[in-house]
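Hi support team,

I submitted a single chain yesterday and got back a structure, but I'm not sure I'm reading the C-alpha cell output correctly. Could someone confirm the output below corresponds to the sequence I sent? I've pasted both exactly as they appear in my results page.

Thanks,
R.
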Amino acid sequence: MLRSVIFHSLAFLSVTSAAPAEALRWFKGNTHTHSLWSDGNDFPDMISEWYRSHGYDFLAMSDHNLLARGDKWVTEELIEKKKIVLGKKVLDKYRARFGDKWVETRTDGKGRLEVRLKPLEEYRRLVEKPGKFLLVEAEEISAGMGKAPIHINAVNLHEAIKPVKDLTSIREVMRQNLQLVAGQAAKTGKPIIAHVNHPNFQWALTAEDLAHVIEDRYFEVFNGHPKTFTRGDDLRATSNTEKIWDVANTIRLAELKAPILYGVATDDSHNYHGGDVTPGRGWVMVRAAKLDADALVSAMQRGDFYGSTGVTLDEVKFDATTRKLSIKIKGESGVSYSTEFRGTLKNYDRAVKEVPADPKDPHPVRLEYTADVGKVLAKSDSLTPEYQMTGAELFVRATITSTKKPVNPVWDTQTEQAWTQPAGWEK
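Hi R., thanks for writing in. Yes, this is the structure output for that exact sequence:
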C-alpha cells in the first residue's frame, strides 16, 4: 500500500501547474557535492564559496549517509592525506580565507592538531547571500547490494536517512531507500527529490533497473566523476547514460504505463586541491519563482529544469495544446550548436538481444535494444530549434551539443552540452 501511495503522489507532483511564467527565472545549482564531512578533501564553507564565486545560485552539499550537523573534528594529518597534490596546506588556505577567529583548532590526546568542521547552520551564515546564493541540505544515501553500490541523493531533507542495504535484489534496495525519502516528505510536508546517482559507477545499475523501480523519478544522465563512465563502454550493451535514459523511459511508457524519469547533471566533486574529481563540470538550471529550497525542489518535481555541462538555454517550452517543443539557445560568438530531438515512436521495434558482459559485472548478461529506442527524430543547427510532435511518439527530448570545450572537461574530446526533459508523454 505504501508503494502505491508514494507512486501516485510522485506522479501528481510531476504534473502540478507551474507558477505564472512572468514570475519565473533560471537558477544554476549543483545537487551532488562532497566535503570533509565524508570523502571530500576541503572544508564545506570553502567549497560553498567556490560555487558562489563561480556563478552558482544554489548548492546541495551531499555527504555520504549524514547531514552536516553536530560536532565533528578531523585531524590535519587526515586532511593532508586526502589532498592529492602537494602544495600549500589545506588548513593554511582555510585560515588565509576566513581568519583565525573563524577557524577552530585543538590538540587531541595524541598531540595531533584537529580542526572543527562547521555544521551547515553555522557556515551558511558565512557564505549565503539572500536572493543570490542558497545552501540546500542534502545527503547521499549510500547503500548497496553485494558489491553493487546503490547511491541516491536526497535534496531538501529534514533528517538524515539511514540506508537500507543487501535485501533481495538491487531493485528492492533502490525501492526501499526511495520509499524512506518519500516517507519523510509525506511526514514533514516538505518537497524532497531523490535522484539515483551514476548508474555506471562499478556498473551497478541497468536501464531495466531504473525502468522498473517506479518510485524513482530522477537519475544522473551526467556525472562529472571520471569513474562513473557517462559514455558507457564497448563491453556492456546499453551502458551510455543517454541510451539508459531512453530505454528506461520507453519501458515505463510502453510497458509499465508509468511516469518518466527526469535527467539531472551533477559534479559529484570530491577534490579541490588537484585531482580528477573536481567541481564545475555539471549542473542543473531550475526555473522557479524564487531562490528558496522548497521552490527549487517543487520546480524540479514539475520537470521545470534542464541539465548542462556548459550550454545555456534561455527558454525550454512544451506547448501541451500544439504539442510543440521549443528551445532558445543562448549562443556564444564563434560557437556552433547542434540539437538532436530524440525519442521513441509508439510502433518501435521491440526486439531485444542478450549480450554477455564482463565476468566481473554485477549483470553478467545485459540487454541490447534496437536503434528505434531513443532514435534521432530530427536535427537542427538553429539557435531556436523546434520539434512538432505528430502523435506517433511516446516522448521527445532534446540534446544540445556545442563545439566549445568545457573549462574543466571529464574526457579529452568532450564538448559542452545540455539536456531537456522528456516531453509529450503525459496524457
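A quick pointer for reading it: Residues 84 and 275 are 6 Å apart (CA to CA). Let us know if anything else looks off.

Best,
Support desk
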